[in-house]
Prior knowledge:
The complex is a heterodimer.
Chain A lengths: L11 E16 L4 E17 L3 E5 L6 H8 L7 E7 L5 E3 L5 H4 L6 E4 L13 H11 L6 H14 L16 H13 L5 E5 L7 H18 L2 E5 L3 H7 L2 E6 L2 E7 H6 L4 H9 L39 H5 L5 E4 L2 E3 L21
Parallel strand pairs in A: 3-8, 3-9, 6-7, 7-8
Antiparallel strand pairs in A: 1-2, 1-4, 4-5, 9-10, 10-12, 11-12
Chain B lengths: L8 E12 L2 E13 L4 E5 L6 H9 L6 E10 L12 E2 L8 H6 L4 E4 L3 H4 L6 H12 L4 H14 L5 H4 L9 H13 L5 E5 L7 H18 L2 E6 L2 H7 L2 E6 L2 E7 H6 L4 H9 L50 E2 L5 E2 L7 H7 L1
Parallel strand pairs in B: 3-8, 3-9, 6-7, 7-8
Antiparallel strand pairs in B: 1-2, 1-4, 4-5, 9-10, 10-12, 11-12
Amino acid sequence: MTQKTAIGNDQVLLEIKHLKKYFPIKKGFIKKVVGYVRAVDDVSFSINEGETLGLVGESGCGKTTVSRSILRAIDPTSGQVLYRTAGGEVVDLANKPESEIRPLRREMQMIFQDPFASLNPRMNLLDLVGEPLLVIDKMKSRAARMERVAELLKLVGLRPEYMQRFPHAFSGGQRQRIVIARALALNPRFVVADEPVSALDVSVQAQVLNLMLELQRKLGLTYLFVAHDLSVVKHICDRVAVMYVGKLVETAPTDELYFQPRHPYTAALMAAVPVADPRIRSAMTPLEGDVPSPANPPSGCYFHPRCPFAIEKCAQETPTLEEISPNHFVSCHRAHELQLIGVGEPPENSS
Amino acid sequence: MNNLTKPLLTVRNLKTYFKLDEGMVKAVDGVDFDVFPGQVVGIVGESGCGKSVTIKSALRIVEKPGEIVDGEILYHPQKNADANDGPVDLVTLKAHGKKMRDIRGNEIALIPQEPMAAFSPVHTIGNQLIEAVRLHQKVNKKQAFDIAVQALHEVGMPNPERRMGAYSWELSGGLRQRAMIAMALTCNPSLLIADEPTTAIDVTTQAQVLNLLRSLQERHNMSIIFITHDLGVIAQVADFVVVMYLGRVMETGTVDDIFHNPQHPYTKALLESIPTVHSPSKELLPTIEGSIPHPFNRPAGCPFYPRCADFMAGVCDKRTPSLQKINDKQSVSCFLHHDKAEEDEAA
C-alpha cells in the first residue's frame, strides 16, 4: 500500500477509511430513487490489537451500520475496511468478494443485543454453541463437539451439564453468556459487541461486563463495543469514538474524552448523563432540539443548529477530523479555542 | 387545601396475584409506601420486581388474570366536593365504576412507558388531547382545544397549534413523550405516575424530559411516582425512594439515605454493581451472584436470600422479614436490622 495508513503499524488490527453507507429512499410505482439516507458518512478510525474501542451516539447516528459494514453483514457504499489477518496480511474487507472473506469470518464474530431474540428456541446449547464448529470447522464428530462446547460453557461461567437444555431455561444474563460462548467457538480475534448489556437487568449487567473483561485478558480479544450507555462504555473501553448523524465527531482515550472533551456534542452528551448521586443534581443540562434526519442533514457542521458555540463558519463549512493532541481526534472548527467541561470531578464518596 | 402531614396516597400490604394455569404468580406481595403531597417518589427495581403492577393496581388497570387479593390503597381526593370526607380505598371501588373513572386520568394521571404504543396512530394528537379533556371537564370543543394547546405549550412543544393536527408518528421520540406528558397534565392531576418515561429514549432527550418533569412538579406542586430501573435517573429526580425486589419492598428512605447510607444488602449490592462515569475503567465490578429467580420458583423466606452476601442460614430462608423502621425516615426489610423483640413479635 502506497498511502500513509495507520495499519502500517503492527499494533493496528483494523482501520476504517472514509467508510460510507447510503441507503436509497425509493418512491412511487417505479421505485425511483429520490434521495439517500446517509447512515454512515465518511467515517475513519482504527482499532489496535487487544484494545476495546467504544462507539457511542444517539439512536440513528449510524453506529450499528458501521459495525455491520465492518463485518460485511451489509455492503458499504464506499471506503475501505483494512483488516490485519492472523497471518499478518492486510486485506480490504469492503472491496473483496464474499468468497474471499469467508475464510476470515472465523476471526470476526458478533455479540448481539437481545439474547431473547438471538438464540433459536428449538436448539439446545450443544447445537447452538456447536453450530459454528459444525458449519465452519466441519467438526463432524458429535463427541468432539461436545467436548469443545463443554470447554466453552465453562469459559463463560456456565455448567457443562446444561448442554442438553434449551434457551428458555435460562435467564437473560445466562443467555447472553451463551451468545458469548457461541461467538468464541471459533477462537475469534475480533469481536463486535452491539449493545451487549442493554437488554439485561442492572444486577446482571455487571456480571456480563466482568466476563467480557476477563475474556479479553485471557484470550487477547479486540472488541468494538457499540453502546449508548455512557457509564458502561466508560467502564469497559480503552478508547471511545463519538458519532453524530453518520459522522465521527471525536475519538480519544476514554478518560481524556470523558474529562476533557473537545467537541461541543461530546460535552453535551457527558452533561446529559444522570449521575447516580442525589447530591450533584444541577449537573444535568439538556441539549435543545432534536437530532436531524440523516436523509436531510443541515449544512456545514451537522451539529451547528444545536451547538451553543456555533459561529457563521459552522453553517457553511464542514469541519474535518484533525488530531488535536496525540491520539485525540476532533472535528470542530472551534476545537482549539473552546474550554469544555466533561463529566466533572468524581463526587466525594462518603459511603 | 393540602394538609402536608397527610399522605396523598397510602399503600398498605398490597397483594396482586396472577392466577395462571402453571401456578400463582405473586407479582406484588405485600407492598407498603406513602406518597405525600408535592413529593417525588421513585420506585426502583429490576424486571419482575412488581413495580409496574403496583402502579397498575393503584390505577385499577391490572389485566386479567391479575387480581388484587389483599391490602388497601387509600387516596385523598383533592378535586370533588367530598374532598373533606377523608380517603377512598381504591381497592374497594369498582374498576370500571364512575368513582374510579373520575379519579383515573383526572386526579391520578399516567405517563406510560412507550409513547409510540400509547398514542393512536390514526387520530391526531389534538384529537386525543381534546378527548382526554372532555372526558373529565365540562367544557365545549373550543375550550377543550384551548386547554390542550395550553398543555402542549407548557411542556415546551414548538408550534403547539400546528402540532394539534399532527399524528404521533410525525413527531420525534422526545416530542412524542412531551405530548404524552401534556395529555397527562390536561386535567391538572394531583398525582402523576410516570412508568419508565425515559427508558426508550436517548440520553440527551432523557435529560430534556427529566428537566421538564422536575419543573412541572415545582410549578404545579403535584406528587409524582417515578418508576425506573435506572439508579442514575432516580438519584436525579426523586425525593423519596422505594427499592423493590420480587414483589416486595426491600428498603425505603430519602434519596440521600438510599444512595449514601443504604442498609439493605440488596440496595448496597445494587449500588456497587452499577458502573458510573466516575468509576475506574477496565476494572472488575463487584457483582450480585446469580440471577433473578423465575416468578414460579420464588424462594421461601426473604426473596433475596439466595443471592445475598449476608445470608443467615435458618433465619432468612425460613421467615419473611417485614418492613421495619430503623429511623424516622428509613425502613428496611431485613433480619440484620430487626431487633430481637420485634422479630419474635413478627414471628
